[in-house]
């Protein structure tokens, strides 16, 4: 839950906690991707329909929604509070978002090749999946244990609550109402199938 109690007993919506909660869903998808990559390495043909749904999750939830909240709302606010972009932690996170998009494109290209019957694309799929998993795991650790801790020090409760509300609006605009729940159902379905 992305809330905390304030001194008056009321609930304050905490933006950084919402992002940490979303990281848990992304980390689960990374475990699923890792399992599929291991299966492919052992000669199994991947379920391309599942792979396409994973790519939709990565593009829609991880990138457009989650990274959108960071890039459009949180990071500019942190820069205003003196956390550097260029050569600083915000710039590093932004660069890693770009790298993640490159891996997602490589994954999507490999799945299209696999669907067309090119089994040589399995190697490209595994490489892209493993690269993305490695990048995102390290990225999430840096955000949870460095950047969000910095944010919690510079943003007061009112600012956290305002960011939380802005996150909710962005989510409705970028992925649509109810889509978040669909992604959670997908995570459960794929977890049951692979883990």
UniProtKB/TrEMBL annotation:
UniProt domain Hemerythrin-like: residue ranges: 16-151
Pfam families, per database record: Hemerythrin
Domain of life: Bacteria
One of the record's GO cellular component terms: plasma membrane
PANTHER family found in the cross-reference section: BLL2471 PROTEIN-RELATED, HEMERYTHRIN-LIKE DOMAIN-CONTAINING PROTEIN
UniProt name for this protein: Hemerythrin-like domain-containing protein
Species the sequence originates in: Acetobacteroides hydrogenigenes
